[in-house]
Design brief:
- One of its GO terms (molecular function) is AMPylase activity.
- Belongs to the SELO family.
- Its cofactor is Mg(2+); Mn(2+).
- It is an enzyme of class 2 (transferase).
- The structure is a single chain.
- The chain is an alpha+beta fold.
- It has four domains: about 230 residues, no CATH class; about 160 residues, no CATH class; about 60 residues; about 50 residues, no CATH class.
- The chain is about 40% helix and about 15% strand.
- Strand 4 and strand 5 form a beta hairpin.
- Helix 16 packs antiparallel against helix 17.
- Bound molecules: adenosine-5'-triphosphate and magnesium ion (MG).
- The site of adenosine-5'-triphosphate has 15 residues, from loops.
Length: about 575
């Protein structure tokens, strides 16, 4: 007998370390660590960070970590063996203990500072020092970088304990918000929406954190009790976690010459952003000011496409500040988010977020973030009038680009090759007046019915004969437009069903998953993961009966389901 091949051996954390070997650290070395911070990573107290791109910080491991879930889809995409999730070293790392990480992994994490703008207004008062120098990753820290199939990814713990930017917070995330973020990131990816991804989710069996939340059956707008929830650490994965707010922070410092290296630090972070997120689009041999203009153009396009996707799938980010706006065009920070069930242009699940971040206001919110991005880049072009003019043109073209992306998205939702201005302007008020379910409506429409019978499945209330007539009239006009399309109806149907998901995020169906997880039962998380993994397909009948449903009456206005004011 020959010895068993070690191809079947249990993979270990050393296998993950091999991906880190491919990392070109010279890219990272261009960024500067905080010169005043502790280099050993024991830097957990709120303080001002005056310069440098990151602070080293060791995560604080959770007591008695228990595995909840991982994303098989992401493991497969990265080329990591699924069985690695059973390795103890792997679990240790992604539940916050870096002490055994093998070389060339580093045994500290890194947190970054960022600035905050809300709807285009610079804020500093959020920071306890009123200077903006205390604001950044308060509970997020990256712990690993690797090159997987030629692409570089960063892995970041969320809830891994306090950092210099924690502003007095505990640095933890609770199970509830971690389950939501873990599931939502992978769901968005399956929907085809650019997003940070989920690697793993672990919960502590011994540590809890109290957060304001809602008592059972509460209809209160604000949380009415404090609830102890187990703490959890989820790991998210992205090409980078660079945010518009981060570029802004260095631009603000450069503008006022906050220190000798302020301008250099801004140049370095922008070069880093190009390298991490735009390498395939921006020619590195271009002069740097030309690269900056290309960067603005590329980001404008990605951001507009991202928001058009959000509208397509009914997603509302809820708090689309510059610090929650990832600079490569990915969705980031799934705390205050929600998905529109009953169609409402003003849908906003996060009570702290304000109407300017509501569902159909997101294109304007994106523009405010783009404005801050443009301002930051402009700082770098101070002496170059011609380049400034070019950059300003990119800025002024935002509305048109956003409108084009949205119009082609609405056309695709309606199975049309061109945006039907008149039909669309009739549709929006009809949808609002009728009180219908956004997902079910467009999915039923994707079957191209000849009368409105099946569309009524999506209506939350009975309609009058007059309204029915208006719908039928609208439908007839739409069918006429379809008949003029080059493609046949069967092809249009298929494309519409790939644009309009069957399965959406329904908070009242997700809440039981985190509630049961609190009791140690993770089966519903797995079920949701499966359903969300294939949102455009017709799934089994039992799944359809459970998940393709209108929101029951008693969940309307229910605290923690229809709205929430705490997202952490
Ligand atoms: N429990 C906490 N301890 C320390 N800092 C926190 C905590 N909760 C939130 N923060 C920090 O407060 C700021 C605002 O929080 P917000 O809810 O936008 O972000 P988040 O959900 O923690 O993170 P991210 O944007 O990284 O997904 C962030 O800088 C965040 O790191
Ligand atoms: Mg955030």
């Amino acid at each position: 007998m020959t010895a068993p091949s070690n191809a079947f051996a249990q993979p270990s954390i050393s296998d993950l370390a091999t991906f880190a070997k491919a990392v070109d650290y010279s890219l990272m070395d261009r960024l500067t660590p905080d010169p005043d911070g502790t280099s050993d990573g024991n830097d957990h107290n709120t303080r001002q960070v005056f310069s440098g791109h990151y602070v080293r910080v060791k995560p604080t491991a959770m007591g008695h970590a228990e595995y909840i879930s991982h994303s098989q889809a992401l493991f497969a995409q990265l080329g990591i063996a699924d069985a690695l999730v059973h390795d103890n070293g792997f679990k240790q790392l992604f539940s916050g203990d870096l002490s055994q990480a093998p070389t060339p992994m580093v045994r500290y994490g890194w947190a970054t500072g960022y600035a905050l703008s809300i709807y285009g207004t610079e804020y500093t008062q959020q920071c306890p020092f009123r200077t903006g120098n205390g604001y950044g990753d308060g509970r997020a820290m990256s712990v690993f970088e690797g090159v997987f199939s030629g692409k570089r990814y960063e892995m970041q713990l969320k809830g891994g304990g306090p950092t210099a930017y924690c502003r007095g917070g505990d640095g933890r995330a609770v199970l509830r918000s971690s389950v939501r973020e873990f599931l939502a990131q992978e769901y968005m990816h399956a929907l085809g929406v650019p997003s940070a991804r989920s690697l793993t989710l672990y919960v502590s069996k011994s540590e809890t954190a109290a957060r304001p939340w809602y008592s059972p059956n509460s209809y209160s707008a604000n949380p009415d009790i404090m609830v102890d929830n187990p703490v959890a650490i989820s790991t998210r994965v992205a090409s980078s976690f660079l945010r518009v707010g981060q570029i802004e922070l260095f631009a603000r410092r450069a503008r006022v010459n906050a220190h000798d290296n302020a301008r250099l630090e801004l140049t370095a972070i922008v070069a880093h952003l190009i390298e991490r997120e735009y390498q395939s689009e921006i020619d590195p041999s271009l002069a740097f000011h030309q690269q900056i203009i290309e960067l603005a153009k590329s980001f404008r396009k990605r951001l507009s496409q991202l928001v058009a996707h959000w509208l397509r799938v009914g997603f509302c980010q809820g708090n689309f500040n510059s610090d929650n706006c990832q600079a490569g065009g990915l969705t980031l920070d799934y705390g205050p988010f929600g998905f529109c069930e009953l169609f409402d242009p003003d849908f906003q699940p996060w009570t702290g977020g304000g109407q300017h971040f509501a569902f159909l206001n997101q294109p304007a919110a994106a523009e405010a973030n783009f404005h801050m991005f443009w301002l930051a880049l402009r700082t770098l072009l101070a002496q170059d009038q011609q380049a400034i003019e070019q950059l300003d043109e990119v800025r002024s073209g935002f509305k048109v680009e956003m409108q084009q992306q949205c119009q082609s998205m609405w056309a695709a939702k309606l199975g049309l090759s061109e945006f039907p201005q008149q039909l669309f302007s009739q549709l929006m008020p009809l949808m609002t007046q009728t009180k219908l379910d956004y997902t079910i409506f467009f999915r039923e429409l994707s079957h191209i019915p000849s009368d409105i019978g099946s569309l009524k499945k999506s209506f939350y209330q009975a309609t009058s004969a007059v309204l029915d007539q208006q719908w039928q009239h609208w439908l007839d006009q739409w069918l006429d437009l379809l008949a003029n399309e080059k493609q046949d109806l069967d092809t249009i149907k298929i494309n519409m069903q790939l644009t309009n998901p069957k399965y959406t995020w329904r908070e009242w169906l997700v809440a039981p998953a985190y509630e049961q997880a609190k009791q140690g039962d993770y089966s519903l998380i797995e079920e949701l993961k499966q359903v969300f993994n294939d949102p455009y397909s017709e799934q089994e009948q039992a799944i359809e009966e459970k998940y393709y449903r209108l929101k029951p009456d008693h969940f309307f206005n229910a605290g923690g389901i229809s709205h929430y004011s705490c997202s952490s």
